[in-house]
Design brief:
Radius of gyration: 24 Å
Shape: globular
Distance between the termini: 71 Å
Number of strands: 2
Order of helices and strands: HHHHHHHHHHHHHHHHHHHHHHHEEHH
Number of domains: 2
């Protein structure tokens, strides 16, 4: 086994012992859900960083960067703006002091809104957990050079995330995030200059990558590049401002003041990490552009053979056609074109049957570009080895931390918003605690199946697509109504409920139904070439504003919990 695998196994062993220790401090559901509302500002900062920085950054964000270059910064920039907005609401959220966003939704919009909101959160967060498992599988596959398959790696990642979350809940999640957050920050800052040197210096992206990678809006990304960039910006913005895991962290803080201070530091850490990861991905792509193109051509051929659009007899001419298309579009330079053609020819010497093609593993998956960067720099000097190990450790840390955060959160909805509110609110603390751990296992298994089944069926799995779908569904269904509940007194129960239903249903139709049943209208991965989030967000906002203004305004008594009346001195 490689050194990297030993490091990962040691890291997981230490976390296992640590989480068993933290689990002994869980006495009731308040400890399990919100860490007894005891988190200090130091722990708050790092657990907020780990709440947001996950495989969506290291895997999906890196995959997007490989395709879009510097314009991929539009994706994390939405979150940066969202954190600025949340800064002004953090203290108010902590003062409200509940457990889930469902508590806020019910206060303003009633129990039906709470129930529907909980269902949307469960669907979106289970999807987010699923691609953490996928990322874990990619990491273990890379560090073992294929000895551990992606499928087996996904299983291992799922087992550890489910175990750690079930052991200690928020008490384990937040305290695990402290060392994980430190590893993430250190790894990114140390690794970047070494990745730039390995790639050939700062000019390597000019020499090896298409000019579109230096554009503000990558011309080849989607049917309408500007709308695509805006769609990613909007998706991360809406998710960040409404993400329940963040609200749970605010509820877990010692005081409203510390919650607000933690957000101010959180934005600095998030901007640093996400910008550095994009830079690492770009310079690493410059080193492996031919590898990436080889992978993409072979994967395109696999999809076309599976769909019967290309026969096995015609795959070699089709491969050459794809190579020429890249050359004509300026996606490879002459030197890269020659090398790519030679590689594809060598690959076809290994292919006799359809099974040979489907099992062929060549090139470099864009989703693994940061992991490859870690492997590259670790081969050069002791400092490089340390930086590489740290970067792989950071990748593992984000999978574990984000998986735990997003697995705990929806089970809190099940217990608080469904079981406790509609089934048996007077159950004992011991029973509720035990039942939440059971639901952690159930949702964890569901998330695992979401990536395991496509893996077994050899379906195309894009972490970027999983992330974008989950962000959109959550952002348009929950965030508008949630923010309106906190800042707009004129919002009514009917308006909030209409926004949640309208946004959620439209997102489901645009992100899941249309691509599955009406693929002919999909262009560049979007319905009619326009990111679906524009339609679903507009529907959500129109429902919120229109219905609220057409219905009776809430009374002072109905607003009291979130807008307490000021008392005169």
């Amino acid at each position: 086994m490689s050194l990297y695998l030993y490091v990962i196994l040691l890291y997981l062993l230490i976390l296992t012992v640590f989480n068993f220790y933290r689990s002994r401090k869980v006495r009731n559901q308040e400890d399990f859900m919100v860490a007894g509302r005891s988190l200090s500002i130091r722990i708050m900062v790092f657990t907020l960083i780990c709440t947001w920085i996950g495989s969506g950054t290291f895997i999906a964000g890196a995959e997007y960067t490989v395709r879009a270059g510097w314009s991929s910064l539009w994706m994390p920039a939405g979150a940066w703006f969202g954190i600025m907005v949340i800064y002004f609401l953090a203290a108010k959220i902590r003062t409200f002091g509940q457990y889930t966003v469902g508590d806020i939704l019910e206060v303003r919009y009633g129990k039906t809104a709470r129930l529907i909101g909980a269902i949307m959160i469960i669907i979106a967060f289970t999807t987010i957990v699923s691609y953490q498992f996928r990322a874990g599988g990619l990491i273990l596959n890379i560090v073992t050079k294929g000895a551990i398959s992606v499928a087996m790696g996904q299983t291992i990642a799922a087992l550890f995330v489910i175990l750690f979350t079930a052991l200690g809940g928020m008490m384990a999640v937040a305290h695990t995030d402290l060392p994980n957050g430190i590893i993430i920050l250190l790894a990114c800052c140390i690794a970047l200059p070494l990745v730039v040197l390995f790639s050939g210096g700062t000019d390597s992206i000019v020499q090896n990558l298409p000019a579109t990678h230096r554009a503000v809006f990558a011309e080849d990304f989607g049917q309408y590049p500007t709308l695509k960039a805006g769609g990613y910006f909007l998706a991360t913005l809406l998710l960040l401002m409404g993400v329940q895991s963040m609200y749970q962290k605010f509820y877990s803080a010692k005081s409203p003041k510390e919650a607000k201070q933690a957000v101010a530091l959180w934005i600095v850490g998030t901007i640093v990490v996400e910008t550095v990861v994009v830079a690492i991905a770009i310079y690493s792509a410059a080193s492996h552009w031919v590898d990436i193109r080889e992978f993409e051509i072979v994967e395109t051929l696999k999809r076309e053979v599976i769909s019967k659009s290309v026969s096995m007899e015609k795959i070699e001419p089709r491969a050459q056609q794809l190579i020429q298309e890249l050359s004509i579009a300026g996606k490879v330079n002459p030197e890269q074109l020659t090398e790519l053609s030679d590689r594809i020819q060598n690959d076809f010497r290994l292919i006799q049957t359809e099974e040979d093609l489907l099992s062929l593993s060549v090139g470099l998956d864009p989703a693994a570009i940061v992991l490859k960067a870690a492997e590259d720099i670790s081969k050069h000097s002791v400092i490089g080895l340390l930086a590489g190990v740290l970067l792989l450790g950071a990748a593992c840390a984000v999978v574990i931390s984000t998986g735990m955060n997003y697995l705990l959160s929806p089970t809190t909805n099940i217990m608080r918003d469904i079981y406790g509110r509609f089934i048996k609110g007077d159950a004992s603390e011991a029973k509720k605690l035990a039942l939440q751990k059971v639901f952690i296992v159930i949702l964890g298994v569901c998330a695992f199946l979401m990536v395991f089944i496509p893996t077994v069926r050899r379906s195309n799995i894009s972490v970027l697509r999983y992330a974008y779908t989950a962000y959109t569904m959550y952002g348009v269904a929950i965030t508008p109504a949630l923010l309106a509940a906190l800042v707009w007194k004129r919002t009514t129960k009917a308006g909030g409920l209409a926004s949640i239903i309208g946004g959620g249903l439209s997102a489901l139709i645009l992100e899941l139904v249309i691509p599955t049943f009406f693929p002919q209208i999909m262009k560049g991965g979007d319905p009619w070439g326009i990111p679906g989030i524009y339609f679903s967000f507009t529907i959500s906002i129109v429902c919120l504003l229109g219905v609220s203004l057409l219905t009776k305004a809430p009374t002072v008594e109905e607003l009291q919990e979130l807008f307490p009346a000021k008392t005169e001195n």
